[in-house]
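ESCALATION

Customer reports they have been waiting on this structure for their group meeting. Please prioritize. Original submission:
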Amino acid sequence: MQTKTYKDLIVWQKGMELVKEVYCLAKLMPKMETYILISQMLRAAISIVSNIAEGYKRNHRNEFRQFLGLANGSAGELETQILIAKEEYKQIDFSRAESLVIEVQKILHSMILKMQS
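Update from on-call: job pushed to the front of the queue and completed.
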C-alpha cells in the first residue's frame, strides 16, 4: 500500500499510541514530577511523532531518513525515562509504554536501514 500521508505510517500510528500512553502515565505520577520527569517524557514522546511527520513532509529521502534518526534518538531518550520512572514508581504499570517504545524503535531502525540501501 502506498502511503499518501505520514498518518498512514504504522510507526507514526504506534508513536501516537505511545504519546497517549505517556499522557495517561503522567496523570498517575506525583505532581512534584510535573516539571521534571513528566515534562521530559512528554517532550520525548511528542518529538518522536513530530520528527516522523516533519521528515515525511520534506521533499527528499535523505532528509526523511535524517528525521527518522532524530525520532529514534527521542525514542531512546523516552525509553530511558520510562526505565527511570519504572524504578522510582513501582506502583505504576509502565509495561504498555515500555513495549510501545521498543516497538517504535524497532520499526524506526528497520526503516532507517532500508532507506540506506
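Sent to customer with the following note: The chain has four helices and no strands.
Escalation resolved.
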